[in-house]
Amino acid sequence: MATIDRPAIAALWPTLRGESVVLDVGATIGADAQQLIDFAILGTGMARSVFGIARPSVGLLNVGVEEIKGQEEVKEAGRMLREANMASMNYHGFVEGDDIGKGVVDVVVTEGFAGNIALKTAEGTVRQIGGYLRAAMSRTLMARIGYIFAKGAFDRLREKMDVGRSNGGVFLGLSGIVVKSHGGADSDGFAAAIELGYDMVRNNLLDRIEADLDLFHARNPRALSSRKSDVVTDAKE
Asked: Which of 77, 151, 200, 223 is the most exposed place for a label (fewest CB within 10 A)?
């Protein structure tokens, strides 16, 4: 996309309230304020297309919810998103790591280094909890009997936390729909990635994103002009 400086990888994240879009989870390390704003717009478009939410809530991942906390890039992005007051986005403010799983917002925005660590930590935690449960349920005869009665509940829990159900990292900011399937996904997971791509095409994801980008830059022309000047400077160098 012409006004997007760097793409982002978005992931569907299981939460207590359903699912959230989390980006970037590894494409852009050390994003600046404008790139974080781009990610917020990209994630909003994805949430509208996949979840059918007219005005998704968006939060910037930070070390605290107070406006004085965090890196300057994050604070600057928060200020600009708040001032933009976009009709397609309900900017919530800063969110912390534990807010992701709670489903506090529909879209969580961060740069790729922190996002990738958060994703891998969550995946590892799921496997760790699964190991604890298997060990506990097989320790004694009574535990094994109890598992038989609770099997339905455990199956629902496994389905909720199954990576395959949310298989597919979405590259946002490109001129087409690109879904990267998880390396360990089975046939059901691969089918889920295809279905995700189909949903985004059917619900006009790219058109939604382009419209939101045009609206933001119309209200914030300095952001676009600053980016163009940076491109010219880089070309001269």
From this structure: 151
The angle that helices 221-236 and 33-51 make with each other, rounded to 10 degrees, is: 120
Confidence of residue 162 (pLDDT cuts 50, 70, 90): low
Per-residue pLDDT tens over the stretch 36-78? 999 999 999 999 999 999 999 999 999 999 988 999 999 999 9
CA proximity to 1, closest of 125, 171, 134? 171
Architecture (CATH level 2) of domain 8-120+166-236: 3-Layer(aba) Sandwich (3.40)
DSSP classification of residue 10: E
Of 88, 12, 23, 5, give the one whose Cα is nearest residue 61. Answer: 23
- CA–CA separation, 58 and 55 (whole Å): 9
DSSP secondary structure string for all residues of 101-167: HHT-SSEEE--HHHHHHHHHHHHHHHHHHHHHHHHHHTSSHHHHHHHHHHHHHHHHHHHHH-GGGG-
Cα 84 to Cα 23, 40, 152, 214, 218: the distances in Å are 20, 12, 47, 12, 10
Beta bridge partners of 171: 9, 178
Per-residue pLDDT band for 98 (boundaries 50, 70, 90) equals very high
pTM, entire model = 0.85
